[in-house]
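Allow me, if you will, to draw on your knowledge of protein folds for a short while. The matter concerns a single protein, recorded as an amino acid sequence and a row of backbone structure tokens. Kindly check, if you would, that the fold set down in the tokens agrees with what the sequence suggests. You will find the record immediately after this paragraph.
***
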Amino acid sequence: MVDYRGGYVNYFSILAIYRFEMGRTFRSPLQSIASPVVSTILYLIVFGAAIGGRVDSIDGVSYDLYIIPGLIMLTVMTQSVSNASFGIYFPKYLGTIYEPLSAPISHWEIIMGYVGAATTKSLLLGIIVFGVAYTVVDIELFAPVTMAVFLVLTAFGFSLLGFIVGIWAKNFEQLSLVPLLILNPLIFLGGSFYSIEMLPSHFGALTMFNPMLYLISGFKWTFFGNSDVSVFISLAAIIVFCTSLLMLARWIFITGYKLRP
């Protein structure tokens, strides 16, 4: 076994956690993959087909195309939090979390195993949603490489957030509190389905305090070449977001917050 205390990374431990979490996903494909994809397709049908024909283009982009980035981000953000939070909560709930905690592996390896699996799941869902949308709407990406960067960083950052929520939660009610009452409203009010220029001035100014606006806006830029916020600010925001959550996760393992019996 590689000794992480000597400065090496124990890739076997990361892979073991990663494979276990990915296996849990593919043991329940209807719940893990089909359900969120179908929900997103329903959004696409309702907002794109039913409402899109009654809405003028936004920034020269047809409405059915304009909502695609928001739908992808909605799926990736919510599924990242959901997958990561449930992935770490159940071992804590069952008491099996003490097995990796007592094993000769570092907290970084535990984090990367769980968060890496949740990131992979949400990226897979994001790609599936993009593929479905591509068959329905004519999509031409403005900056495909930057889009991939945004997608990976967003999936990773929100998987970290879900990982932290799963450790913090005492019960299933708290586990669903953050996604339902905090995350979902912020995503919907962050310009997922509209431009903040469409809002009255005072509401537009208030929206600038919504952190989701910067992530969604940057992702929109990779599709259309224009956005509500500078793409450089959006990139800085997602990097700060991921770094802050990494430091918080490290602090949790160092202090044993919510992990010690």
Remarks:
- The CA atoms of residues 25 and 203 lie 40 Å apart.
- Residues 1-6 have pLDDT under 50 and may be disordered.
- The radius of gyration is 19 Å.
- Residues 63-94 form the longest helix (32 residues).
